[in-house]
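Example for tutorial group B:
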C-alpha cells in the first residue's frame, strides 16, 4: 500500500518516495518522488495524467495540475532521481549516464498511478528533456507484451521536447564526437558555458516573472551540464532520429519562434530561449503513431509558463486534442 505525506506545495498536494537503491552512476542511495494533486474531499477518479519535468526543473506548476483536474483527470508528477525533491546531498543534479536508467522510476510511477485510479488509463505529459526521456521509455514499453496500450497508456503530450542538440551544425557533428569521447572518460566534467540567466528572469517572481519556485532546485542560470549526461542525451536523440514506435497518439506543443540572447529584451518573453523550435518540428514525426504538432505564438520554452494569452491558447489546444482522443474510443477514457 502506498503511503502519502504532505508535499511542500501545500494543501491538496501529497508525495510518496521510492528508494531505488545504490546509484549505478556511483552517487550513493537514490530515490524518486511522486507528487499527487488531491484536493480535500476529492475521491480518486478513473483516469490520470503523469507529468515528467525537464533539466534544471522539478514539479511546481500547480496551475497545470489544476487544469487537468478540471478536465476530469487525477494529476501526478514525478521528480526523477537527483532532481528537485529527489536530490540528496552530494549528488550531481540530473546526472545519469544512460536515460534508460529512468525506466525504474517511470515503471513504478505508472504502476502507482494506475493503482490510484483503479487500473484506469493514464495520459503522459513531459517538458523539454522529459520530452526526450518519456518517448524513449515509452518506445521500450511498447515493445513489451501488450504494448503501450496494454500498460494503460492512452496518449502523450510533449511541451517543447528536446529532440536535437541546438546550435550550429558542427556542434551536432564534430561536437558530438567530442561529447562521446570526453563523456566516456570524464563523465562529470562540466562544459564551459556563459552564465546566462535570461530565461530564469522571465519566469521567477522575484526577478520580474510570474512564478514562484525553489531556486536551489531550479536556479536562474541552470545547473552545470556534464559530458557524461550530455553523452546520454546524444545517444538517445540518435535513437529517436532513427524512428520510435511509442504506440499511442501524441500532441507536441512548441513556441513559434526561437530567440537566443545573453541579454534580456522584450523578445525574451515571447520565444523559446532554450531550444531550436525548427528542430522540434523536424523530428516530431519520429515518435511513431499519429502526431499533432502545434506552434504557439508568443510561447516561452515551457509553454505552460508563458504569458497569459499564449498559455491559454496552449491549454485550449490540449483540451481540443483530449476531446479528439476521447472520440477515438479509448477504453474508459471518457468514463
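The residue assignment follows.
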Amino acid at each position: 500500500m502506498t503511503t502519502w505525506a504532505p508535499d511542500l506545495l501545500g494543501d491538496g498536494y501529497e508525495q510518496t518516495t521510492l528508494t531505488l537503491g545504490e546509484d549505478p552512476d556511483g552517487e550513493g542511495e537514490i530515490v524518486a518522488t511522486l507528487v499527487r494533486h488531491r484536493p480535500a474531499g476529492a475521491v480518486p477518479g478513473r483516469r490520470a495524467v503523469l507529468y515528467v519535468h525537464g533539466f534544471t526543473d522539478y514539479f511546481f506548476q500547480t496551475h497545470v495540475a489544476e487544469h487537468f483536474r478540471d478536465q476530469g483527470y487525477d494529476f501526478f508528477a514525478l521528480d526523477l532521481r537527483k532532481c528537485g525533491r529527489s536530490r540528496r546531498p552530494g549528488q550531481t543534479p540530473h546526472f545519469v549516464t544512460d536515460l534508460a536508467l529512468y525506466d525504474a522510476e517511470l515503471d513504478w510511477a505508472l504502476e502507482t498511478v494506475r493503482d490510484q485510479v483503479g487500473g484506469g488509463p493514464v495520459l503522459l505529459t513531459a517538458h523539454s528533456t522529459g520530452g526526450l526521456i518519456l518517448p524513449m521509455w515509452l518506445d521500450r514499453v511498447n515493445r513489451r507484451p501488450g504494448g503501450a496500450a496494454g500498460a494503460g497508456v492512452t496518449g502523450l503530450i510533449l511541451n517543447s521536447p528536446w529532440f536535437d542538440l541546438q546550435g550550429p551544425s558542427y556542434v551536432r557533428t564534430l561536437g558530438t564526437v567530442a561529447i562521446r569521447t570526453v563523456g566516456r572518460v570524464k563523465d562529470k566534467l562540466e562544459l564551459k558555458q556563459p552564465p546566462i540567466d535570461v530565461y530564469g528572469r522571465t519566469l521567477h517572481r522575484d526577478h520580474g516573472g510570474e512564478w514562484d519556485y525553489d531556486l536551489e532546485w531550479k536556479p536562474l542560470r541552470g545547473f552545470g551540464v556534464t559530458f557524461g549526461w550530455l553523452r546520454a542525451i546524444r545517444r538517445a536523440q540518435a535513437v529517436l532520429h532513427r524512428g520510435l514506435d511509442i504506440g499511442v497518439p501524441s500532441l507536441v506543443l512548441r513556441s513559434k519562434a526561437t530567440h537566443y540572447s545573453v541579454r534580456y529584451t522584450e523578445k525574451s518573453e515571447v520565444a523559446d530561449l532554450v531550444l531550436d523550435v525548427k528542430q522540434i518540428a523536424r523530428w516530431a514525426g519520429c515518435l511513431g503513431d499519429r502526431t499533432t504538432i502545434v506552434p504557439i505564438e508568443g510561447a516561452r520554452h515551457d509553454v505552460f509558463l508563458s504569458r497569459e494569452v499564449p498559455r491559454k491558447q496552449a491549454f485550449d489546444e490540449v483540451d481540443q486534442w483530449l476531446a479528439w482522443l476521447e472520440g477515438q474510443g479509448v477504453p474508459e477514457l471518457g468514463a
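The mean pLDDT is 95. Compare this with the pattern of hydrophobic and polar residues in the output above.
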